[in-house]
């Protein structure tokens, strides 16, 4: 099913999701590194990356929401998968937002904040896997789901 939120036939949501994933997961790495090394400047970098990651996640969510209601058929396995995908992403963002409130005076995250950032990163990975399931198994956001799926199998002519 072709994505409702697309640009020249290309779904917008998958174009945008690498930004929050990269920013937030790297922010978690910087926070962990700051905790291990006591380098406050790494915590500051992590704070900036977290803010940028949360902002870009909100931007990426807009076409995702449009596709959820405009592309994914209700009462289907695809809708259940899309709901799980959305819940994992929202939970991940909540983890990162809550982690930020658990900073020490020097800016480094307390143990609970580090745990939340790690859990948030894990949830982003699960959400990505679920998004892949939607595309590759449920064919959500695929412009032409009638195309042969075995073009790369041996014996098939290549263009």
Strand content: under 5%
Structural class: mainly alpha
Please state how the strands of the largest beta sheet are arranged side by side: 1-2
What oligomeric arrangement do these chains adopt? Answer: single chain
Principal-axis shape: elongated
Low-confidence stretches: none
Terminus-to-terminus distance:
24 Å
Total domain units: 1
Mean pLDDT: 88
- Contiguous helical run count: 5
Main sheet attributes: strand count, strand direction, barrel closure: 2 strands, antiparallel
What level of helicity do the residues show? 55-70%
What is the ordering of alpha helices and beta strands? EEHHHHH
The strand count comes to 2
Can you put this structure into words, describing what you see?
Helix content is 66%, strand content 3%. It is mainly alpha-helical. It has one domain (6-136). Strands 1-2 form a two-stranded antiparallel sheet. It is elongated and about 50 Å long. The two termini are 24 Å apart. 33% of the residues are buried.
Topology:
Elements: E1 6-7, E2 10-11, H1 13-16, H2 18-37, H3 40-70, H4 77-100, H5 111-136
Antiparallel strand pairs: 1-2
Notable characteristics:
mainly alpha; 66% helix; 2 strands; 5 helices; 159 residues
Sum this structure up briefly.
With 159 residues, this protein is mainly alpha-helical.
């Amino acid at each position: 099913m072709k994505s409702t939120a697309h640009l020249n036939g290309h779904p917008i949501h998958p174009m945008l999701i690498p930004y929050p994933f990269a920013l937030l997961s790297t922010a978690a790495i910087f926070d962990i590194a700051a905790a291990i090394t006591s380098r406050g400047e790494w915590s500051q970098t992590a704070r900036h990356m977290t803010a940028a990651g949360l902002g870009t996640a909100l931007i990426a969510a807009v076409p995702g929401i449009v596709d959820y209601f405009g592309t994914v058929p209700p009462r289907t396995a695809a809708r259940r998968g899309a709901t799980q995908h959305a819940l994992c992403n929202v939970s991940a963002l909540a983890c990162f937002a809550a982690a930020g409130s658990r900073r020490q005076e020097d800016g480094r995250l307390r143990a609970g904040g580090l745990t939340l950032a790690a859990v948030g990163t894990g949830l982003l990975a699960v959400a990505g896997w679920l998004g892949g399931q939607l595309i590759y198994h449920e064919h959500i956001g695929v412009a032409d789901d009638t195309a042969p799926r075995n073009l790369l199998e041996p014996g098939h002519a290549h263009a």
